[in-house]
């Protein structure tokens, strides 16, 4: 009997999505048991027990990632791999996407407001390292003064590296992937922080869905993700720009189907 451990995400790393994260992990656990697996739920402050064959983890805390690295060194299969989760830190995944030829809006990594690009407004000011834990970690700025204010707000919390990304007007698309064989996209009405309002009403611009899938899968492969989600912008011309990529989303709208595919990934070792 295979022993599978599941690890929930820290609520701080899952703002406004804690219940949805718990729901997808719970569904995965139910389906794993139906397939004959023993399921062990682990908290983020606990060690990985001996004899665990697979860890299905949503955790991003440094301490748990280190314990997961130790488990990987012992031969435990971890989904997503720890290196892939670490690469989902914003600055790192944006660099990987750039190197992989995935179109993104114009952006620059900066250390202070003096480095702001004058030809990049309106824009988004984003915390460069880690993930978005607070609404202010991603702020829309119409002008340079608003961008400076956003940077100062981040600096007041001890953040010292920022991303200035040019605003790209268009439809927002959310996409989800599991391995090579599952891909889904949809047009959201709102997100966890409500930033979608700056793109206005969805216009239903036409675009090449196969190109979106290829972009997403290329990015996920370059990062090393087996389970992933992200956001893209579709311009009026049908161009596709990736603006966000995350490890292990909550799959709220397609939870049952996603849970089945994740269990297949775990039990059948599919890719």
Structure description:
This protein is an alpha/beta fold and 271 residues long. The protein folds into three domains: 78 residues, 3-Layer(aba) Sandwich (Rossmann fold), CATH 3.40.50; 85 residues, D-amino Acid Aminotransferase, Chain A, domain 1; 61 residues, ATP-grasp fold, A domain (Dna Ligase, domain 1, 2-Layer Sandwich), CATH 3.30.1490. The protein has seven helices and twelve strands. A four-stranded parallel beta sheet has the order 2-1-3-4, sandwiched between helices. Strands 5-8-6-7 form a four-stranded antiparallel beta sheet, with helices on one face. It has a four-stranded antiparallel beta sheet with strand order 10-9-11-12. Helix 2 links the parallel strand 3 and strand 4. Helix 1 crosses helix 7. The two termini are 21 Å apart. The model has no long low-confidence stretch (mean pLDDT 93).
Task: Please sum up the structure shown.
This protein has seven helices and twelve strands. It has 271 residues and is of the alpha/beta class. The model has no long low-confidence stretch (mean pLDDT 93).
Itemize the secondary structure elements and their pairings.
Layout: E1 3-7, H1 18-34, E2 38-42, E3 54-57, H2 62-73, E4 77-79, H3 82-87, H4 90-99, E5 107-110, E6 123-127, E7 138-141, H5 144-155, E8 162-166, E9 171-178, E10 182-186, H6 209-223, E11 227-234, E12 240-247, H7 255-267
Parallel strand pairs: 1-2, 1-3, 3-4
Antiparallel strand pairs: 5-8, 6-7, 6-8, 9-10, 9-11, 11-12
Helix pairs in contact: 1-7
Throw out a few tags for this protein.
D-amino Acid Aminotransferase, Chain A, domain 1; four-stranded parallel beta sheet; alpha/beta; Rossmann fold; Dna Ligase, domain 1; 3 domains; 7 helices; 271 residues
């Amino acid at each position: 009997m295979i022993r599978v451990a599941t690890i929930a995400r820290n609520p701080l790393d899952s703002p406004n999505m804690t219940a949805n994260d718990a729901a997808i992990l719970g569904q995965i656990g139910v389906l794993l048991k139906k397939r004959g697996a023993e399921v062990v739920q682990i908290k983020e402050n606990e060690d990985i027990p001996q004899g665990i064959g697979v860890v299905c983890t949503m955790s991003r805390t440094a301490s748990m990632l280190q314990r997961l690295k130790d488990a990987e060194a012992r031969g435990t299969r971890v989904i997503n791999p720890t290196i892939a989760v670490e690469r989902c830190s914003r600055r790192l995944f944006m660099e990987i996407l750039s190197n992989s030829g995935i179109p993104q809006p114009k952006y620059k990594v900066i250390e202070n407001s003096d480095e702001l690009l004058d030809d990049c407004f309106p824009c988004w000011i984003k915390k460069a390292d880690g993930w978005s834990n607070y609404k202010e970690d991603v702020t829309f700025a119409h002008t340079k003064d608003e961008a400076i204010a956003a940077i100062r707000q981040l600096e007041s919390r001890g953040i010292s590296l920022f991303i200035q990304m040019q605003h790209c007007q268009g439809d927002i698309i959310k996409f989800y992937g599991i391995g090579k064989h599952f891909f889904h996209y949809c047009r959201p009405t709102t997100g966890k922080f409500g930033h979608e309002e700056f793109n206005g009403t969805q216009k239903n611009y036409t675009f090449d869905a196969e190109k979106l899938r290829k972009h997403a899968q290329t990015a996920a492969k370059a990062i090393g993700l087996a389970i992933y989600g992200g956001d893209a912008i579709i311009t009026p011309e049908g161009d596709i720009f990736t603006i966000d990529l995350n490890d292990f989303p909550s799959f709220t709208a397609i939870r049952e189907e996603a849970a089945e595919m994740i269990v297949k990934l775990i039990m059948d070792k599919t890719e």
